[in-house]
Design a protein that fits this description.
By secondary structure, the chain is of the alpha/beta class. It is built from 30 helices and eleven strands. Helix 3 links the parallel strand 5 and strand 6. It is elongated and about 105 Å long. 40% of the residues are buried. About 2% of the residues have low confidence.
Length: 706
């Protein structure tokens, strides 16, 4: 073996159980990033082969064939075919779905013919048995010429045997010397010419060097030599690919006769197929989907109320205790009104975020999320998208950044661009804290029929508004984007399964940690900066305010307490933050916003959830110390304008919620759109149309309701 870290690549068709095996092998020793040069997600983890011997496991994107079309398939392909030995994988584990063995064997046979150390991990054996499929493991292994290990990573079965097989491959370090098909017959002379340049590669690798050498990073002289080999041997890419696939399926048919017993086509349908007759019904399917999504948003309120109230109470009590325990110095003020206020604005929303992502994970784990894509395809096509656009859009309810990156799976360039442009309109988890605080302020906490939360209905309405706006924008923009390509929608529906509760709990904890750590760092930094901007201002103005109210308090001792409160409010208005807010207030006044909301709109452009931390800091700095034990919601409810009217009326609250549904308000999203489209043109168009929509519809809402 070369003196470097061992690399094991996991390959397989989508939904074959590859990620489940990756989780079983690596446990919590995982890292998530991007493959170099692309935005396709890269998962790696450490796996112990034997005592003292560990390897890096790479979970490569799912592929149906070694002839790539999508960006993620190119990532898997380039990892396998890269001529740089330092980047080559040492062992390949092909995950094959036993319940769809014929289709999975195409990709497996192609990888096997690369003549690298390979073994096959056979998953879904229980589903295969339910279908009446019987597989002779020994005969299948003999026909393929590689070890075949049946596994069930969800139940941790077969992992020990798989580890032993990997250990043996590592020890022997041998590839397969006999081809699954006679590859040399496809283009013998051209293959011989390539092998003169690269003596150590297999016949099948030579075929792929001929077809895709432009993507393999060769130098210019090597490209020219390969081109000459193609030209001199009249090498036809399309004909060779077609013959390759035809020969493989013919060989797979022979293999199936020797090692697989399949049931009669008249066999009774599986339970999943019978369930889909209802779930995918042209009427009932949409009704069920609506009910599922309705229950999802209702559950966020039902289950999160108690822990959120508990966190709110803890921070109010902590603030009260610190106010009495600490001396009246600036550092105490920073701790209470900057750090503690910002921290409370973060942690109070953790229960809702955990519950939302837990429920979404259940939908994915059970297989229902793929049904949502299937049901939505017809609607998507009417607005210029297709069913594959649904998954990035649904992912956008979590975060627009990875959702936009996942749009690379859409082959059609126009549909991909439209998906990227509208995905930020899906209400991401960063908007959830904003929606929560505003609905609790202006929407009554009432229940219809004793169980249906009005606040939950409003919350669902905000998500539906974002989705409907996205579809409308896609319908309009499709007329302006002049890209013409044929569009195909191929979706594999996974079988219905019981959710993996351990995976759900892990996801909930990970999402909470990401929110608290990643978003929390931004919120805390901005909270501290805001505290400073809110606590200090131009010296001359602050001195005038202090002198004015101290003099009034001396003259009228009966109203001294009121003057002290008025002084704090006046000092906040004359602080640097107050000056900034009052500068932009005229632009925002038609929407019903005051200068404090204006400050929050500016700061939350870094991250939408900063809105809550900003309000927590501003209202803490502006209040008397004996009022700091009140929750942020109570302080915002009591907020008054200079004319004595309430700031947060129904009109203002609805206007602000609509603004956050439609506005971009996210620097990270603009950056990733720039990266995905390769130009600042599209992110600027995106920022422009979303800001215009947000201002226009917020203005209309405020004027109608006020």
């Amino acid at each position: 073996m070369p003196d470097r870290n061992l690399h094991i690549a996991l390959l397989g068709n989508p939904n074959s159980g590859k990620t489940s095996l990756f989780n079983a092998l690596t446990g919590m020793n995982q890292k998530v990033g991007n493959f170099p040069g692309v935005t396709v997600e890269r998962k790696t983890g450490l796996f112990t082969i034997s005592p003292g011997v560990s390897a890096t496991v790479i979970d490569l994107p799912g592929s149906y064939s070694l002839y790539p079309r999508r960006a993620d398939e190119w990532v898997a392909y380039n990892t396998l075919m890269h001529p740089d030995q330092e980047k080559e994988v040492d062992i390949i584990v092909i995950i094959a779905d036993a319940s769809n063995i014929r289709r999975n064997l195409l990709y497996a046979s192609q990888v096997i013919d690369l003549n690298k150390p390979v073994l096959v991990a056979l998953t879904m054996m229980d589903i295969a048995r339910q279908k009446g499929i019987q597989i002779d493991i020994g005969a299948l292994s003999a026909e393929l010429g590689v070890p075949v290990i049946p596994i069930n990573p969800r139940q941790n079965k077969g992992i020990v045997e798989l580890r032993k097989a990997i250990q043996q491959l590592h020890r022997e370090h041998v590839g397969r010397s006999v081809s699954f098909i006679n590859v040399h017959d496809l283009a013998g002379a051209a293959i011989d010419g390539i092998q003169e340049l690269f003596p150590d590669i297999s016949d099948y690798s030579a075929i792929h060097y001929l077809i895709n050498h432009e993507s393999m990073g060769f130098d210019a002289p090597t490209h020219e030599r390969i081109d000459r080999i193609e030209e001199s041997n009249s090498f036809n890419h399309t004909r060779v690919q077609a013959e390759d696939i035809q020969k493989r399926y013919s060989r797979i048919r022979d293999l199936m006769k020797k090692s697989v017993i399949e049931p009669s086509p008249l066999q009774k349908k599986l339970l999943s197929e019978r369930i889909d007759q209802v779930m995918l019904h042209h009427r009932w399917g949409f009704l069920i989907m609506g009910i599922v999504l309705f229950l999802l948003f209702q559950s966020v309120f039902w289950f999160a109320a108690i822990p959120m109230n508990a966190i709110d109470w803890i921070f109010s009590q902590l603030t009260t205790w610190l106010n009495h325990a600490l001396p009246d110095y600036w550092i105490s003020n920073l701790l209470i009104n900057g750090v503690i206020a910002g921290l409370g604005g973060i942690l109070v929303f953790v229960p809702q975020i955990m519950i939302l992502f837990g429920l979404i994970t259940i939908l994915e784990d059970t297989g229902y999320m793929a049904r949502i894509s299937f049901l939505s395809d017809k609607l998507m096509r009417r607005v210029g998208l297709n069913g594959k656009s649904v998954m990035p859009m649904i992912s956008g309810f979590a975060c627009a950044v990875p959702a936009i990156m996942s749009a690379r799976n859409i082959e059609n360039r126009k549909e991909r661009l439209l998906t990227i442009l509208i995905t930020p309109l899906m209400s991401c988890s960063a908007r959830l804290p904003v929606f929560t605080i505003l609905t609790s302020l202006v929407i009554p906490n009432k229940y219809i029929l004793g169980a249906i939360s009005v606040q939950g209905l409003v919350m669902m309405g905000l998500y539906v508004l974002g989705l409907a706006s996205g579809l409308l924008v896609a319908y309009i923009l499709k007329a302006f984007i002049k890209i013409k390509e044929k569009s195909f929608f191929i979706l594999e529906l996974p079988l219905y399964r019981s959710p993996r509760w351990k995976n759900i709990v892990t996801t909930m904890i990970q999402k909470a940690r990401i929110f608290v750590v990643d978003a929390g760092k931004v919120i805390m930094v901005i909270s501290i900066i805001l505290w400073a901007l809110s606590s200090y201002g131009p010296a001359g103005q602050r001195e005038q305010v202090i002198s004015k109210y101290d003099l009034l308090a001396e003259k009228d001792t009966a109203r001294a307490a009121q003057y002290r409160s008025d002084k704090k409010a006046a000092l906040l208005e004359h602080s640097y933050a107050g000056i900034m807010g009052r500068t932009i207030e005229p632009v925002l006044k038609p929407l019903g916003y005051d200068w404090k909301i204006g400050i929050a709109l500016i700061t939350s452009f870094a991250a939408r959830e900063v809105f809550v931390g900003t309000m927590a800091t501003l209202y803490s700095v502006g209040e008397d110390s004996d009022e700091n034990n009140q929750t942020l919601r109570h302080k915002m409810q009591q907020a008054m304008r200079s004319d004595g009217t309430k700031v947060y009326t129904l009109a203002t609250g609805v206007s602000l919620m609509i603004f956050y549904v439609l506005a971009m308000q996210c620097m990270s999203t603009l950056a990733v759109v720039r990266r995905e489209t390769g130009s600042w043109k599209w992110p600027m168009i995106q920022l422009g149309y979303m800001t215009f929509m947000a201002y226009l519809f917020s203005f209309i809402a405020y004027q109608l309701l006020s």
